[in-house]
Amino acid sequence: MKRRDFIKKAGLATVAGSTMTLPLSAFDIKPKYTQLTILHTNDVHSRIEPFPMDGGKYQGKGGAAKRAALIKEIRAEEEHVLLLDAGDIFQGTPYFNFFEGELEFKLMAEMGYDAATIGNHDFDAGLEILKKQWSSHANFPLVSANYDFKDTVMEGLVEPYTVIKKGGLKIGVFGLGIELEGLVPAHLYGNTQYLDPISKASETAKILKHNKKCDYIICLSHLGYQYESDKISDVKLAAATEHIDLIIGGHTHTLMDAAEIHHNKNGEHVIINQVGWAGIALGRIDVRFEKNKKNKCISCVNEHVH
Prior knowledge:
Blueprint: H1 3-19, E1 33-41, H2 64-77, E2 81-85, H3 94-99, H4 102-111, E3 115-116, H5 127-137, E4 147-148, E5 161-166, E6 169-177, H6 186-189, E7 193-194, H7 197-211, E8 216-222, H8 234-240, E9 246-248, E10 260-263, E11 269-273, E12 282-290, E13 296-305
Helix pairs in contact: 4-5
């Protein structure tokens, strides 16, 4: 879906939500909304500095300083902001080879990330290093519902989900990771067990919806956007589950022109988005909730801030 069409549809949803839920006598009263601004990254791959000005496709793009400035600017404009990452924080530049993830986690902590999931490359220095760097330098949760870290040094440090409160809203965030066998050397992930992502997503989203009473549910997925094979992807995940409102993807480095609307197994909307790799874009999704309808989501507008 083109960005202008997406925004047009979001605008129509806003009109419908405003006019159909108010009595005629109240048309002169502005409804009260809570807007949640969701910022997100994926597959940053230790890109601390921008790409060099060497004539390449991404010259001048990326870099932690530019991203931090954008995030600060948006936070100054919007009251309720979430900052999330969909994995592969590590690997790709000498910064990782020398500092083994310390700098990446320090910068994310300074930027105020609210949660992240674990990508396959986040195992590249082994579990001991992942534990050391996250425990020492991160101040945000790592979430993964389908990696079981029992009998590893990460046991008890990674939760299936987290619930974040913003502006009277309860936002459930959980993570999913890709199959590690054949992708990551076995000695790096040790006894980490990969569990079926669709069954774990269904189980976790149900808990967040019914037990935790979340108003909005976000999956941080490092499964990949879509494949020609039957491999589980974000598109397949959306179609096979329920209760998930937004899938923030990673792994396939897909730079989407705009977020896409898919349908879950009940025919309800699921938004999927992914913003390439190396921090070349910062994803932004604005979700509007109507306060007097028990935080009913009535519209969503998406953009990528390059």
